[in-house]
Amino acid sequence: MRKLGSRYVLHELLGQGTTGQVWRGVRVQDDAAVAIKVLRRELADDPEIVDRFLREWDLLVELDSPGLVAVRDLVNEPGALAIVMDLVEGPDLRAHLREFGPRPAQEAVRLAIGTLWALDSVHAAGIVHRDVKPEDILIDTSVPDRPIVRLTDFGIARVISTPSRVSATGPIGTPLYMAPELGTGAPPTPAADVYSAGVVLYELLAGSPPFDSTNPADLLRAHREDDPQPIAGVPAPV
Length: 238
What we know:
This protein is α+β, with helices and mostly antiparallel strands. It contains 5 helices and 10 strands, in the order ββββαββααββββαα. The protein folds into 2 domains: 2-85, Phosphorylase Kinase, domain 1, CATH 3.30.200; 93-225, Transferase(Phosphotransferase) domain 1 (Transferase(Phosphotransferase), domain 1, Orthogonal Bundle), CATH 1.10.510.10.
């Protein structure tokens, strides 16, 4: 347990990525449970990463949709930069797949539809997520009989009308789930998010993504040129 700035206390590490860690925490004022995404300390002096982190806050603070993890506060104090969000009780799709394996078609389609509804509200606000993958799709089980899909992690999202950048090592995103056109340098659009959601649906049904390689260039080529293998036992309409 440790304090974060003057208003929050961190209790339990829930997950971590390349730029940040997500903690279960509480607000000092009223002991309310929250999730807190904290920028890694070693990255606090990188202006590009700090700008991306603050841009995520700017994008999400204006959005209000049941399909998104709502953001509540920004901590920007000496030695602490963090985004405070609602705490979602439930696993992400990666953990769900790891525990239960491929999902029945009815459940997989329901989860995919929930993801698409969340993306619809994001796209309506003029934002492209750019990195839809199982780790960023949470299953809110706070109401046991009515699980709700909530989309999170907008760290590389961008406003549709702003120019897109391609990094020195290639397009930004996760190649396993990346739309074919992004591999050729095309700007990300809502259609690219929908494609990524389709790849997630395939993985929910098959237990693994349609293409697999440790080489990002090979994955991007496969998305452009190859057909995914049919999934045994999946109804034709799916």
